[in-house]
Amino acid sequence: DKAIVDYKSKVDDLLNRIQETELKRKSVELKLDHTEGKLRESEENAKLLKSSLYNAELGINATQREVSEKEKECQDRLNELITKYESKISMLQAEIDYSKGKSKSNEDKVYFLLKQQEIVGTKWRSDHYKMTKYY
After folding, report:
1. Rounded distance between C-alpha atoms, residue 88 and residue 67, angstroms
2. Whole-structure pTM over 0.85, yes or no?
3. Cα 25 from chain centroid?
4. Residue 78 and residue 85: Cα distance in Å, rounded?
5. Per-residue pLDDT tens digits for 44-53
């Protein structure tokens, strides 16, 4: 009788351990399923991130091309403006030089005319003096 009770107790212990092991196995399987789900989700996220990164790189490359084109357009426009203003400055300098030459020529003419006026004035005073002295 005692041997049967001991045997039955051992069988009950073994059945309890089997149940506990089965519960642990199921718990591990659930964790494994959960981990595999997370892994799949992470892999999908990684694919999405790679795709986003690729698209971002394409966008960056396109933007860099646009910026380079705009820089070239701006530099070309700036060069045109520089050429235009250098031409205007050169033209104005030529006008200034011409005006200086004309001004010098006009100064010479004015000086000549003043001298002529002085000569005529002196001659008139002389002639006037002679005429008034004579009469």
Report:
1. 31
2. no
3. 62
4. 10
5. 999 999 999 9
Location of structure tokens 């002679």: 130
The identity of residue 73, as a single letter, is E
Residue 81 Cα distances to 67, 69, 74, 87, 100, angstroms = 21, 18, 10, 10, 28
- pLDDT grade, residue 102 (50/70/90)? confident
Q: Which two tokens stand for residue 27?
A: 């718990």
The span from the CA of 53 to the CA of 115, in Å, is: 90
* Alpha-carbon span 101 to 52, nearest angstrom: 72
Residue 106 to residue 54: CA distance in whole angstroms: 76
> Distances in Å between the alpha carbon of 14 and those of 5, 10, 26, 69?
14, 6, 18, 80
The predicted pLDDT at position 39 comes to 96
- If you search the block for the tokens 């092991």, which residue do you land on? 21
Q: Which helix (H) or strand (E) holds 135?
A: none
Give the tens place of pLDDT for each residue, 20-50: 999 999 999 999 999 999 999 999 999 999 9
